[in-house]
Amino acid sequence: MVTHNGGVTDDDGVFRALADPTRRLLLDMLFGRDGQTLSELEAAVPMTRFGVMKHLRILEDARLVVTRRSGREKLHFLNPSHPPGPRPVDQQVQPSPGLQRSAN
Fold it and tell me: Do residues 102 and 1 lie in contact, with contact meaning Cβ atoms separated by under 8 Å?
């Protein structure tokens, strides 16, 4: 049995962000064409502008998406410093110090 003593890691935020199908769709859209505006992203999903903004904010908080202003527009990009896919073995997620394995 594994117990967790509270600490939230960066990976927790990433997994939480990826748990939602709408956020995965937004990431797929940015993968297909990086640098889209909120209006462009909003046009492709069946929800309000504010709903899309909320999902983008969660992706930004998880550092999966970054933004850049271009005039009056805010462009959304996949974060190049947070590449998708498996990491090299020496960089894979290690158990948090708060995780303890109990003997059964």
Answer: yes
pLDDT of 14 higher than 80? yes
pTM summary value: 0.70
Exposed e or buried b per residue across 58-76, where buried means at least 16 C-beta atoms within 10 angstroms of its C-beta: bbeebebbeeeeeeeeebb
Q: Which residues on adjacent β-strands are paired with residue 70?
A: 73
What does the domain layout of the chain look like in residue ranges? 9-74
* Predicted pLDDT of residue 89: 47
User: Looking at the domain 9-74, which fold is it?
Assistant: Arc Repressor Mutant, subunit A (1.10.10)
**Least confident range of 14-18, 22-26, 95-99:** 95-99
Reduce the secondary structure of 17-55 to three states and give it as a string.
Answer: HHCCHHHHHHHHHHHHCCCECHHHHHCCCCCCHHHHHHH
